[in-house]
Amino acid sequence: MRRKLAAGNWKMNGINASLTELQALIAAHPTPQVDILICPPATLIVQAAGLSADSPLMIGAQDCHAAASGAHTGDISAPMLADAGAVAVILGHSERRQDHAESSALVAAKATAAHAAHLTALICVGESLAEREAAQTLDVIAEHLRHSLPDSATAANTVIAYEPIWAIGTGLTPSPAQISEVHRFLRAELTARFGAEPAQGIRLLYGGSVKPANAPEIFALADVDGALVGGASLTTAEFSPIITALEQA
């Protein structure tokens, strides 16, 4: 049975003082019934990993380079993230795909690097509003999924997050039927590529304006194994109810 996952993406937010939120989150969920992952900015990974060392809270990163080392000023490799205490890394987020022109092929190369460093690759897929309105959602999802996942992907080292671009940070959320359609499609695509048993083990998260108010409805859907949460993960006050809703789903 797939263990559910509540993942928080702090994006470009957080300084040392923000680590008090991690302490509060650990205190609020000392024995969680789901996995909890926080991905702070790279500047906080070492401190965050130290704070959470004796707790169930896991720390991840928000991106990595495809190379293990080299002349790549400003970049961070997967082995460096692992050495800093990260256990996972978000890859292919729409903000990386759009703002940094990252292709699915590059995402796959980064995922391969993450796997080699024994990091879980949390790979994001999702359509824009224009693509949704043009009825291209499943075509976009298929392209992202097929070309972003390396052959090294397994249930143990890969998580897929469906993040409709038009819902991220906008307050808009797809209908339950729309979320279910994409998650069913993701499971079917994974089954076709990896086989039924391996595909059933890969966790599928929903992301895109997940809030305490809509979390229970989202988590009640089949093939939704948790959430990748943005802004609401920055404070325990907002993230904790989402975790609790996932535990109760």
Set out the fold topology.
Blueprint: E1 5-9, H1 19-28, E2 35-39, H2 45-51, E3 58-61, H3 78-84, E4 88-91, H4 94-99, H5 104-116, E5 120-125, H6 129-133, H7 137-148, E6 158-162, H8 176-194, H9 196-201, E7 203-207, H10 215-219, E8 226-229, H11 236-248
Parallel strand pairs: 1-2, 1-8, 2-3, 3-4, 4-5, 5-6, 6-7, 7-8
Helix pairs in contact: 5-7, 7-8
Tags for this model:
8 strands; 41% helix; 11 helices; 249 residues; alpha/beta; single chain; 8-stranded parallel β-barrel
Low-confidence runs (pLDDT<50, min 5 residues)? Answer: none
Percent strand equals 15-25%
Largest sheet: 8 strands, parallel, barrel
The N- and C-terminal alpha carbons lie at a distance of 14 Å
The strand order across the widest sheet is 1-2-3-4-5-6-7-8
Summed up, the helix count is: 11
Residue share in helices?
A: 40-55%
Number of strands: 8
Mean pLDDT: 96
Q: Could you state the order of secondary-structure elements as H and E? A: EHEHEHEHHEHHEHHEHEH
Q: Which secondary-structure class do the elements indicate?
A: alpha/beta
